[in-house]
Amino acid sequence: ETIRHMVSTGIGITLIPQTAIDYNNLIQNSSIKYIPFKNPAPARRVGLLFRKTSNRKVCFKKLAASIQSIIQKEFLLEETVEVLPVKLNR
């Protein structure tokens, strides 16, 4: 909200994910304009990390599945999201 307020007062510009856009506020606040990127739009990978030995491993996997399902429906993704183990070098 701080960055959004700075933009509305003319202090600068910002890049925000589409999921962070408050469309109701955009309608009420005509000083802010949202301009979507043209294709190909920028993208990023997001991960859910947890310890292998965590007691909540089942809960985390269910959470990951729920997030994947919501994201695929929300953004109409056709590709399946991959779940990859991460090996940390210590």
Describe this structure in words.
This protein is an all-alpha fold and 90 residues long. It has two domains: 1-41, no CATH class; 45-90. The protein is built from three helices and no strands. The protein is elongated and about 50 Å long. The mean pLDDT is 78.
Mean pLDDT: 78
- Our estimate of the beta-strand percent is under 5%
Return the structural class.
mainly alpha
Q: Give the helix proportion (percent range).
A: 25-40%
- Radius of gyration, CA atoms, in whole angstroms: 18 Å
Tally of individual helices: 3
The profile of the biggest β sheet is: none
Q: How many DSSP E strands? A: 0
Number of domains: 2
The helix/strand series, from N terminus to C terminus, equals: HHH
Distance between the termini: 37 Å
Low-confidence stretches: none
General form: elongated
Please give a handful of descriptors for the protein shown:
single chain; 2 domains; 90 residues
List the helices and strands and how they pair.
Layout: H1 2-8, H2 23-28, H3 57-74
